[in-house]
Design brief:
Elements: H1 7-33, H2 38-43, H3 55-63, H4 66-97, H5 101-113, H6 118-132, H7 138-161, H8 166-174, H9 179-190, H10 192-208, H11 211-216, H12 225-229, H13 240-274
Helix pairs in contact: 3-13, 4-7, 4-10, 5-7, 7-10, 8-9, 10-13
Length: 275
């Protein structure tokens, strides 16, 4: 037995497991009730399904045209992430490497924008989007995600860039590397740990976002997964059997995505500690 493994450690592990199970309770209700009929959900929502009703998923797949809404969500999330990573990383690197009052003021402006509630700019944003002709379009929605997401992404990159020794970049410049070459060949690969973090945070936000797509996308053919799922929860009708099945279909890709990037997060933390 490990001499460092004490009774206190055991108790903390038990508490951690209990807390983890409590957080998993909502997922249990969503998962088991997605296989029940509407009547069975009303009778006992906590009970294990007597018979797994896979027809719920088949109906939801057809009603929502799930491949279409999945494609819309995927395009919006991927395009937004690519833009946020490129814009934020380059801007943060430039601010850090060109210290001065202008860079400080610009950084403060971006950080200050993080505390502005979306509801305060919602109406002006819709008016501006209408004037620019970007409403009811996926590119227009992606541009808005650029604006709302760049503050946090830049803030995270800004702190990480400071930990990269400038001597590495100076050596590359002496060897004849251009400014863009220094960033893309030297700096950006070193930003991998924080890039993975930025992608995960923005993906969770954009994939699950409901309000902004609701305001921008009026065409039913442009609906994202959250918008399509909301159709099962109307003002006077709650189709819990269909709605919960739609929720499971919607969160499954994001769970797979997180599990896929988990190993990269661990590698990034290890590499950062060694560096």
């Amino acid at each position: 037995m490990n001499p460092r493994y004490t009774g206190k450690t055991f108790i903390l592990e038990i508490i951690g497991i209990i807390v983890a199970l409590l957080f998993l309770v909502p997922f249990y209700f969503v998962f088991v009730n997605s296989f029940k009929t509407f009547a069975d959900i009303l009778i006992d929502a906590a009970a294990w399904p007597k018979e797994f009703m896979y027809t719920n998923y088949l109906k939801v797949w057809e009603i929502l045209n799930f491949p279409k809404v999945f494609k819309n969500s995927l395009i919006i999330t991927v395009a937004s992430n690519i833009g946020l990573v490129v814009i934020s990383s380059m801007a943060a690197w430039k601010m850090v490497r060109t210290p001065g009052n202008f860079s400080k003021i610009l950084f403060i402006v971006f950080v200050s924008a993080m505390v502005i509630p979306f509801q305060t700019v919602m109406i002006p944003l819709m008016k501006l989007g209408g004037m620019l002709g970007i409403m009811n379009s996926i590119p227009g929605l992606v541009m808005m995600y650029f604006g709302f997401g760049v503050s946090l992404s830049l803030f995270l990159y800004h702190g990480f860039v400071k930990s990269i020794p400038i001597e590495i970049e100076e050596s590359a410049i002496v060897d004849g590397c251009s400014t863009f070459g220094v960033f893309w060949r030297i700096v950006f690969p070193l930003l991998k740990p924080i890039t993975v973090t930025v992608i995960i945070l923005n993906t969770l936000w954009i994939w699950n976002d409901f309000l902004l797509p609701l305001l921008v996308l009026q065409d039913p053919g442009l609906r994202t997964i959250p918008l399509a799922t909301s159709s099962f929860f109307a003002q006077y009708t709650k189709q819990w059997d269909m709605g919960l099945a739609a929720l499971v279909l919607g969160i499954t890709p994001i769970i797979i995505f997180f599990l896929f990037l988990q190993k990269h997060i661990i590698k990034g933390i290890t590499a950062g500690s060694i560096k």
